[in-house]
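for the recovery benchmark. tokens below, seq after
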């Protein structure tokens, strides 16, 4: 055991969830500064984190771009555009996020110790926990927050993936509206019966943007498949205008209505492992931030059960009625104001507002999946 030093908290995983918890722990008033251990796997893969907020947003100094207009494009190419002020849609790059924490924030906090390695085992040792790394090193801590995700739990729940492949590109010709982010564009023909595809555009200027292919499916495909979808969208939607590639990002987000445990054997679960990814959308950054605040303030971490039920219905449609999903989204964005949609997705809407939203959607389709959900849970 390393000099028998006992940390107040160990955070396994230095991603969005782990570092936001670290921030909240070190910002909270304390008589004595906390001694915090961060176990970092070293993963710095390129990620884009987006969220919407009004007034003063979190991590405002890290926000590289924000938009006050959002757009949805249906399968027929019809665009629905809306100003969502005072809400703004914010973009933070993982590169800037990690740079801030590891180059600025952590070095200024002497109570934080960062260890690069993989946590192999966490066991009780009297009143503390012992964390054994793959390297053989071991550390003692009073509390543990663990972001490691058990793939078997997700697979057993019958979930699906949100795959994404994006390119940060630059063009010589101005072609983007830098004040408008396109959240969903279904105009590329849905050619595959086993998945749903849409595209996502975040313009940083008239000639600089992230254009991303997103696929909902129950299995992973070869990277070349997503690249082909991206190129087809670029040619058919944006005219195959020449561009220079700045960088790429790719990955998969697990989406499931599985009821994750928030605590197991005294170990706090955080991030994906705690179900902080919104099951029906894949958004997670702001949810992880709120969860970190709840942990530090000892607030209730559970979400209202009805939102898990809504997610289950939408996931059922995505998985088994892939052709219907674009139409459901079109009906939603066409008939409900975007600020109200964002409030609903943030799980801050009222029951009356939710009834009004579902009333505007294809009721027979939702009744079918309501029955499927009921029979599945029996």
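predicted aa per position
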């Amino acid at each position: 055991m390393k000099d028998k030093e006992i940390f107040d908290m160990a955070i396994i995983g230095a991603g969005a969830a782990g570092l936001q918890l670290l921030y909240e722990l070190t910002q909270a008033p304390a008589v004595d500064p906390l001694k915090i251990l961060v176990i970092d796997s070293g993963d710095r893969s390129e990620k884009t984190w987006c969220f919407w907020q009004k007034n003063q947003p979190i991590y405002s100094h890290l926000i590289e771009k924000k938009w006050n207009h959002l757009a949805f494009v249906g399968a027929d190419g019809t665009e629905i555009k809306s100003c969502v002020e005072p809400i703004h849609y914010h973009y933070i790059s993982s590169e800037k996020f990690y740079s801030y924490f590891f180059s600025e924030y952590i070095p200024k906090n002497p109570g934080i110790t960062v260890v690069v390695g993989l946590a192999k085992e966490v066991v009780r040792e009297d009143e503390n926990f012992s964390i054994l790394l793959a390297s053989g090193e071991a550390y003692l801590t009073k509390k543990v927050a663990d972001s490691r995700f058990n793939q078997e739990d997700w697979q057993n729940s019958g979930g699906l993936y949100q795959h994404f492949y994006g390119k940060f590109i630059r063009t010589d010709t101005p072609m983007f509206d830098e004040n408008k982010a396109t959240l969903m564009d279904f105009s590329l023909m849905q050619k595959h019966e086993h998945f749903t595809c849409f595209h996502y555009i975040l313009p940083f200027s008239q000639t600089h943007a992230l254009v991303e292919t997103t696929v909902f499916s129950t299995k992973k495909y070869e990277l070349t498949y997503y690249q082909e979808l991206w190129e087809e969208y670029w040619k058919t939607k944006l005219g195959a205008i020449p561009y220079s590639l700045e960088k790429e990002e790719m990955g998969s987000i697990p989406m499931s209505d599985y009821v994750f445990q928030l605590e197991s054997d005294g170990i706090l679960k955080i991030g994906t492992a705690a179900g902080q990814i919104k099951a029906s959308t894949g958004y997670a950054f702001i949810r992880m931030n709120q969860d970190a605040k709840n942990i530090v303030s000892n607030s209730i971490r559970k979400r209202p059960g009805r939102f898990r039920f809504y997610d289950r219905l939408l996931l059922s449609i995505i998985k088994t009625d892939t052709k219907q999903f674009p139409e459901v989204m079109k009906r939603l964005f066409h008939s409900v104001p975007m600020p109200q949609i964002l409030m609903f997705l943030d799980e801050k809407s009222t029951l009356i507002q939710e009834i009004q939203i579902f009333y505007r959607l294809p009721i027979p389709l939702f009744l079918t999946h309501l029955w499927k959900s009921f029979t599945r849970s029996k």
